[in-house]
UniProtKB/TrEMBL annotation:
<protein>
    <submittedName>
        <fullName>NAD(P)-binding protein</fullName>
    </submittedName>
</protein>
<feature type="domain" description="FAD-binding">
    <location>
        <begin position="3"/>
        <end position="334"/>
    </location>
</feature>
<dbReference type="GO" id="GO:0071949">
    <property type="term" value="F:FAD binding"/>
</dbReference>
<dbReference type="InterPro" id="IPR002938">
    <property type="entry name" value="FAD-bd"/>
</dbReference>
<dbReference type="InterPro" id="IPR051704">
    <property type="entry name" value="FAD_aromatic-hydroxylase"/>
</dbReference>
<dbReference type="InterPro" id="IPR036188">
    <property type="entry name" value="FAD/NAD-bd_sf"/>
</dbReference>
<dbReference type="Pfam" id="PF01494">
    <property type="entry name" value="FAD_binding_3"/>
</dbReference>
C-alpha cells in the first residue's frame, strides 16, 4: 500500500510517523517551504501525549515545552481580574499535559519522520483521477505519481477537501470570532506563563515561551469571514486592541511576519462523512475543534494513530469507516465544548466579565480543577482497541 498525505502539519506528520510503525509507505506534500511554521503555541493533552509515548517522542516534547506557571488576567485598563496556575491543571491531568510552540513541535516530528518518508515542500495537488484501482495524482511542480490512498491533512481551509467535496462554505461553521497569533521578542520576562487582558467581546495576551520570546493570542467577536491582506490585518488589530496598555500595546507595535503569523476566522468544520472513495480527511481538514477547545492537536494525533492502525489491518473502505466511528463521538462532543467555551472566553457584557472573574478561579483551583477538567477536556481514547 502507498499513501499520499496532503499537509505536513501536526496531523500529517503524526500520520506519517504512525504509518512508519506499521511499515506502510507514504509521501507527504506540504505547500509551505521547509521551516515555515505558525507563531502560536499548541497544547498536548492526554490523547496526544499517549500517541507521543507510543512514537517514543514524549521526552523530546517535554524537553522543548513552554514553562507552566501562573496565568494573570487584567481588564483593558490594567486592573487585575483574576489568576490561576497551569501547574494545577497539569497536576489533575496526572502530569500528562504540556504546551509547546508549533515550530518546536514541527521540528521534532520532522526529524522523526524525514529519515524514512519523502516530504515534498512547496508542493500541492492539482488533480486527482481515480481509475478504479488507484489514484493518479498530478502536482504543482509538474510531477505525476500513483497512490492507493490519499489523506487530506491540509487544514480547515483544505484545498483537497474543496477538490473532493466542494466549496469551503458548505463545511465551515463560523463561531462568530476572529483570532490572530504570532511570535515576538521581548525585552524582559513576562513574570508569568500568561499575561492577558479581557474586555467585552475581546481577549488578548502573551504566553511566555521560555526563550526570550512570547507567543501572542488575540481573539474578538467578528462575524466576517473574508480573507485580509497584511495591512488590513494590522488595521483590524489596531481598531480592536490599539488603545489597550502594555503588554498588548508592545505586541501591536512589533513587526509582524504575516507569512508565519496566524489571522483568520474561528471556524469549525462539519462534514457528513470524512471520506469519499479512496480519499479520507484528518484533523482540522475533517473537523477543526478550534483553539478554544485546546484539544485540536491531541485529537488529530489520536486520529492519525487510529487511522494508521485500521489501515494496517483492514481493507481501506472498512478502515475509513471504523476510524470515523471511533473518532466521531469525541469530535462531536469537543466541538460542542469549544462552542460553549467561546461564550466564556469572550465575555459579551460587563456582567459576564464579573461572573467569569469570580467563577473561573474557583473552577480552576485545586479543589475543583479535576471536575472542570472532566467537563471541558477530552477523555482518553482506547488507542489500541
Amino acid at each position: 500500500m502507498r499513501i499520499l498525505i496532503v499537509g505536513g502539519g501536526p496531523a500529517g506528520l503524526t500520520l506519517a510517523a504512525c504509518l512508519k510503525l506499521h511499515g506502510i509507505d507514504c509521501v507527504v506534500t506540504e505547500k509551505a517551504a521547509k521551516g515555515r511554521t505558525g507563531g502560536y503555541s499548541i497544547g498536548l493533552h492526554i490523547n496526544g501525549w499517549n500517541v507521543a509515548e507510543r512514537l517514543g517522542l514524549i521526552d523530546d516534547f517535554r524537553a522543548q515545552a513552554m514553562p507552566l506557571g501562573a496565568a494573570l488576567h487584567h481588564d483593558r485598563h490594567g486592573k487585575k481580574l483574576f489568576s490561576y496556575d497551569y501547574r494545577t491543571l497539569a497536576k489533575v491531568s496526572g502530569g500528562r499535559m504540556l504546551a509547546i510552540m508549533r515550530d518546536r513541535f514541527q521540528n521534532i516530528m520532522t526529524r522523526h519522520v524525514e529519515a524514512g518518508v519523502d516530504i515534498r515542500y512547496e508542493t500541492t495537488v492539482t488533480d486527482i483521477e481515480d481509475d478504479g484501482e488507484g489514484l493518479h495524482i498530478r502536482f504543482s511542480d509538474g510531477r505525476a505519481d500513483r497512490f492507493d490512498l490519499v489523506v487530506g491533512a491540509d487544514g480547515y481551509r483544505s484545498s483537497l477537501r474543496a477538490m473532493i467535496f466542494g466549496p469551503h462554505e458548505a463545511f465551515l461553521r463560523p463561531l462568530g470570532y476572529r483570532a490572530s497569533a504570532w511570535r515576538m521578542a521581548i525585552d524582559k520576562p513576562l513574570g508569568a506563563s500568561f499575561v492577558g487582558m479581557m474586555d467585552i467581546n475581546h481577549q488578548g495576551g502573551l504566553y511566555a515561551t521560555g526563550d526570550g520570546h512570547a507567543a501572542t493570542l488575540f481573539c474578538w467577536r467578528d462575524d466576517r469571514t473574508d480573507r485580509l491582506g497584511a495591512d488590513e490585518k494590522r488595521q483590524v488589530l489596531k481598531e480592536e486592541f490599539g488603545q489597550w496598555p502594555q503588554p498588548v500595546r508592545t505586541a501591536l507595535e512589533t513587526s509582524i511576519d504575516w507569512e508565519n503569523a496566524f489571522f483568520d476566522t474561528v471556524c469549525q468544520i462539519e462534514m457528513p462523512a470524512w471520506s469519499k472513495g479512496r480519499v479520507v480527511f484528518l484533523g482540522d481538514s475533517a473537523w477543526c475543534l478550534t483553539f478554544l477547545a485546546g484539544q485540536g492537536t491531541s485529537t488529530a494525533m489520536a486520529g492519525a494513530y487510529i487511522l494508521a492502525a485500521e489501515l494496517a489491518r483492514k481493507p481501506y473502505a472498512e478502515a475509513f469507516d471504523t476510524y470515523e466511528a471511533r473518532l466521531r463521538p469525541l469530535v462531536t462532543n469537543m466541538q460542542a465544548v469549544s462552542r460553549k467555551i467561546g461564550g466564556h472566553y469572550i465575555p459579551q457584557s460587563a456582567l459576564g466579565m464579573r461572573l467569569q472573574s469570580w467563577i473561573l478561579p474557583i473552577l480552576l483551583s485545586r479543589p475543583f480543577a479535576k471536575l472542570a477538567s472532566r467537563q471541558f477536556s477530552a477523555p482518553a481514547l482506547d488507542l489500541d482497541a
